[in-house]
Here is the input.
Amino acid sequence: MKGFKPSAPILLLLPAFVVLAAVVLVPLLLSLYSSFTPFRLTRPETFFVLIGFRNYVSILGNPDFWYAFGRTVLLLTVALNLEMLLGLGLALLVEKATRGQRILRTLMMFPMMFSPILVGFQFKFMFNDNIGLVNNALQSLGITQDAIPWLIESHLAFTAITIAEVWSSTSIFAILILAGLLAMPKEPIEAARVDGCTPWQTFRYVTWPFVMPFAYIAMTIRSLDVARAYDIVKIMTDGGPAGRTELLWTLVGRTAYSDARMGLANAMAYFSILLSIAFTVYFYNKLAAARAQIGAEW
Amino acid sequence: MDENASARLTRRALTVAHRVGLFLAMLLICLPGIWIVLSSLRPTVEIMAKPPVWIPQQLSFDAYVAMFSGIGKGGIPVLDYFRNSLIISVSSTAIAVAIGMAGGYAFARYRFRGKSGMFLGLMLTRTVPGIAMSLPLFFVYARLGIIDTHFGMILAYVALNIPFTIWLIDGFFRQVPKDLAEAAQIDGCTRWQAFWQVEFPLARPGIASAAIFAFLTCWNEFALASQLTRSVNSKTLPVGLLDYTAEFTIDWRGMCALAVVMIIPALTLTYIVQKHLVGGLTSGAVKG
Here is the structure.
């Protein structure tokens, strides 16, 4: 054992690297290669025809792709910001509660247990224009007489998807921010109050900087699996109506499996991978900066 | 006196506002779940009723009975799906945790070159969206002939879980003071013994939560499973949920029942881990 000592961490990390190389890296290289071919599942011989950047060129000239790309970025921006704000609000509400905190915390985690596909079905059910809970409630309360076409009209469908996404992921933010609030020492807050800070100032300059790393941890975790939204969208609208809620991921799935154009789909997939990586690296850096700011050890 | 009274009034108003806000938030969080459970117990006629029936008239377990009574009697092979889900989730969790423990220990206890970069690199493998991942995997698996097998799914899920498991377990090992293991080594333990006798028992609750988290990821995964499984040989519950949808109709009641079946194990497990989970994710976020 002594002779191996310098390489011990490498030895320990080796299994992880082997598995990831076999299941993630090699297939990714393969898909990178196939994005330069006109590969179709139905015609295997096309796998060996190189066509250079033609797939990428045809994607870049395809307005459908750019709409899906823009919509994906829009959904992520809106959803992540909303989740952040609502999560913060929820965490503050629960932290203030004097009794039953344990139960509240458990209830708060409730949506985390739902599989994204379950979230999709559940909200598809609730937003159903004919029998859904939302329309039934609106009609029974006399707010409207019409059946609002939640999943059929394009803007409403996008709103419905955002709501589903926010519902399912706000609790991650809430639970982590709450952990930050609970871990926070009480003295700085008291000191700020004694010095005459308003509650808002106390929050803005004392609490918030302290809680920020926790918020960025939540952001990093979320950005690791933002593509979970695929499941939700796939079930709720499947990219409809007429492609108006098509996201990058559903577009990739459709191109690959319905149209069987693997080469093209792989090229698109690379854009979605880059997008995810960009989000993750961005938040990871923010996290490191926030940690450094409050003098945490790395 | 006036000032006192108004201050008391403000305070009371704030308390009430806080209670109401809390109640509304919790209602929004819980309502969809409650609605699913309720719908699974109501007859389809009531679900479809127009105008809506708000107070359930008759509750029954018909949907659950139908679901488990097999194909042809309005059921789906839910037992097969359940078994597949269980086998795949449990084995991939066990493997991922074993690998994750080795990796997490390396990150928590050793200093080596490129550590930070390696950590980020590991995380980045997790960012590849499931659907993008499924394209090359589908192709490779088809070549190897392991589409629609347990082995193929387990392999994919192990890789899916390793990065996050390492992150969590790294956090838990960091919470165990280094001095303890060092003291054990001074007392004559080897590093190997010190790990199993001192550090592992202390980090065990954390590792258990990492395991449960990995299990839930497998249990809930859909994008990969929907492409890499084909039949009752390996279809998991999330994919099985689609059996309730036909071209234009959806059997809402049956689907709600299956949803409840899916959510109960997840609910129980999450309840068990909640405390440790947060600790593992946030360790190292602040000094202390």
